Amino acid sequence: MRPARFELHRPTSLREALALKAEHGDAAAFHAGGTELLVALKARVLQYDHLIDIKQIPELRSIRAKDDGTLVIGALSTHHAIANDPLVRKLLPGYAELSEQVANIRVRVAGTIGGVLCFAEPHADAPTLLCALDARLRLAGADGERIVASREFHLGEFTTARRDDELLVSIEVPPQLSGSRAAYRCFGQTERPAVGVAAVWSPAGSQRLSLWAGAISGVPTRLAQAEAAASRLPQAVSADEVWQRLEPAVTADASQLEAHDDLHGGAEYKRHLVTVLAQRAIEACLK
Amino acid sequence: MNFRIDAQLPATAAQLWAIFFDVQRIAGLIPGCENVTEVEPLKEYSALMKQRIGPFKLEVPTRIVVESSTLERNVALRATGRDKFTGTSIDVQLKVDLDSQAGPAAKDCKLALDAQMQVAGRLASLGYPVVKKRSEELFAEFEKRLRNELVQFDAAPAPQAAGPAPSAPAAGRATAPAAGAAGPQPGVKAPSQGSRSRTTLLWPRTGVSVAAGLLVALAAWAFGQSPWWWLVAPVLGVAAGIGRENA
In chain A, what residues touch B87 (CB-CB under 8 Å)? Predict the structure, then answer.
């Protein structure tokens, strides 16, 4: 099916893009990679008279590190670019690994991290790991810029804290503690994950484990009991022992997750997957 | 998707009936339900149902039909419609049962509201959990608004025969019982004992009955019967026109 007719705008600066959005209001939408938006337009579940193509805005594309070690990823960065960026591979190899496995090669080359976050389809990979990494999202609007924590960005299925007239500029991942490692493990029968679990293990930090489950519910969800159990682990615990001690807490967290039976699997099956994938993610961090 | 509200309310069935048989009033309690208009009195209505899930918008021109009703006992409504752009259709069946229950000191009414909702089409392909969650949010908001509407029966004095109680809830007296409550809640005062209907001459029944009485009297006179028919037949006609009217 072909999408309904629309007018395509191609601004070359952030200011121009925001002005276009202010001018056309609800009749316009920002368009980046198009892997979500164009599919919805073709399926005729969305209709806009104006599309504002932001791919020509260079400041949304860069990946760089700040002086304090914060990794800044432009919202227009594709999964493929993130997976192959030397800086991401060095600072966040777990995120590079995730980006290498998103959907299929066509989606990875065209799809952007900004699009994934803003479209807020629950069955996505990156939001879960960005929550575990405690990333911050920089949004620009007519009133200026503001920062929203990734953990507070997703409000529900297809709903985020981004106002309709705001544009996601970049994702900022704070510097990770020395020796910390991140890993993401997911499973699904389709190209979208039925369940994904992200773990960040910091041997020296006050919070040793950041553990989040995604895709199973409308928004990424913290596995708080497991995190608390990890904080109580003795410093000298061996890698083999870690999972044995954390498993009851992870299982308890998983049993409380909001889950539904759907095409991705039954609710109980998906809760079981959370435990399995948490074990794999934690063990990957401890390798 | 099925939804249900059960409540024991300190109101008469007539008071609740005034709300539930007023389709425009009940439709106004549904979030996103706009432009409710009467197509056929007490039978068919039209409305525009607007909903939004993230960027996805739904505008469904909806036809609401009163499928059946029994005075102060039950009413069944059906709302159907289809969004022209997304091809998404909705079908809602709403049944309301009112059961008057006279207690030792008060008269309560048991309310049972059943709703069945079906959503089909392209937007439903967002996934059952998404649609179900949105529907649950809608129904929870509807229930909240309905309970606010029903608070008047606790706070306001009993309505008189002239019409239903005012719709504005009294401030600070939100004591409508929770769903599934088995009895009146603490703080709920004795319900009103106001009359539910009044006796009156119903039109056109009175006119037809009196005319029939006059015809009977004329026929009796023509056939040489007793002249008392001139008095008895019209009086019987007037008596036949007496009926009960909702307060």
Answer: 44
- The distance of A40 to chain B (nearest Cα, Å) reads 9
pLDDT at B196: 45
* Spatial contact of B153 and B129, defined as CB atoms under 8 Å apart: no
Q: Is residue B124 part of a domain?
A: yes
Residue appearing with tokens 């056309």: A24
Distance from C-alpha of B177 to C-alpha of B185, rounded to nearest angstrom: 6
Report if residue B59 sits inside a domain.
yes
B172 and B202 both lie in a single domain: no
Beta strands in A150-208 (DSSP E): 154-156, 159-160, 167-173, 181-187, 195-201
Kindly list the residues from chain A whose CB atom is less than 8 angstroms away from the CB atom of residue B126.
45, 157-158
Residue B11 falls inside a structural domain = yes
Domains of chain A by start residue, with CATH:
7-53 (3.30.43.10), 60-173 (3.30.465.10), 181-286 (3.30.390.50)
Residue B226: give the domain boundaries. Answer: 197-246
Stronger pLDDT, B153 or A159, i.e. the higher one: A159
The shortest CB-CB distance from B123 to any of A45, A260, A261 is to A45
How do residues B209-246 score in pLDDT, each as one tens digit?
Answer: 888 888 888 888 888 887 777 777 778 877 777 776 54
- CB-side neighbour CA atoms (13 Å) of B10: 24
Asked whether residue B13 falls in the same domain as residue B109, the answer is yes
Same domain, B175 and B202: no
Considering only A52-56, A149-153, A247-251, B22-26, which range has the smallest mean pLDDT?
A: B22-26
Cβ under 8 Å to A: B residues 55-94: 55-56, 85-87
CB-CB neighbors (< 8 A) of A157 in chain B: 53-54, 126-127, 129-130, 133
Size of interface A-B (CB pairs under 8 A): 51
Chain-centroid distance of CA A141 in Å reads: 21
Answer yes or no: do B19 and B107 share one domain. Answer: yes
- Residue B136 contacts A where some CB pair is shorter than 8 Å: no
**Chain A CB within 8 Å of residue B132 CB:** yes
Mean pLDDT of A69-88: 97
Dist CA A132 CA A234 (whole Å)? 22
- Most B CBs within 10 A among A21, A26, A157, hence the mutation to make, goes to A157
Indicate whether B10 and B105 sit together in one domain.
yes
Say yes or no: B144 and B221 in one domain: no
End of a domain among B182, B215, B235? B182
Q: Please state the domain count of chain B.
A: 2
Peptide bond into B204 cis (omega under 30): yes
Q: Look up residue A122 and give its two tokens.
A: 């629950």
pTM to 2 decimal places = 0.74
- B45 part of a folded domain: yes
A54 vs B182 pLDDT, higher one: A54
User: Do B112 and B12 belong to one domain?
Assistant: yes
Residue A12, phi then psi, degrees to nearest 5: -110, 0
Domain boundary among B182, B214, B237: B182
